[in-house]
Automatic annotation (TrEMBL):
Highest rank taxon of the organism: Eukaryota
InterPro entries: ADH_N_2 (IPR041694), GroES-like_sf (IPR011032), MDR_fam (IPR045010)
Entry protein name: Oxidoreductase N-terminal domain-containing protein
Family matches, as PANTHER family: ENOYL REDUCTASE (ER) DOMAIN-CONTAINING PROTEIN (PTHR43205:SF19), PROSTAGLANDIN REDUCTASE (PTHR43205)
GO molecular function, one term: oxidoreductase activity, acting on the CH-CH group of donors, NAD or NADP as acceptor
Keywords: Oxidoreductase
Organism: Aspergillus campestris (strain IBT 28561)
Domain Oxidoreductase N-terminal: 5-87
Amino acid sequence: MPQTKCWTLRQKPTGWPTLSGPKSTFALTTRPIPPLGKNELLVKTVYLSNDPAQRTWIDSCASPGRLYVTPIETNQVMASRGIGEISTQLPLTESPFTSTAWEETFSTPFSPSWPYTALKNWFQVITMRLRIQGFIVLDYAAQAHEARAVLRRAIEEGKLVLDAESETVCSVRFEDIPAVWMKLFEGGNRGKLVTQLE
């Protein structure tokens, strides 16, 4: 049976994730790729999205009711979004953007120990009768097609420019995936941080 490399959650961190030593957050392992079932594709991960929200998915204090995804448990593969290359011969014209994981090939926040900035101007919020409300992009998933059309039009009209300043793409070996992800918390990126697998 073919094998694939993957990064699993070795143990949930209580502070900053660590990449080495006996208390390392992640473990590099290999797993068998199960035979493809009906309507399944074999996808090779090419790009991985690195997002701060992933830190909340592995937090030891994470409350499942407050997350918009299921928390990642110990020994599960670290989840991500990404773009893959279909490894089967099919007449498809686009690479899939999908929920993936830190796997080469696959078939298809708050922590009390972290420093945080508290809101200090509650008096102004109250006296000015302001409302504070958070949101996540999934709250507007039904309008995603409209947003994509607006962004596409802005790019075509030159109002939205995507250049080297807009993203940091790190071309690395599979073994370096966690090190790239940690750049999010070290100021090691400008704009969107993307992992490109060599």
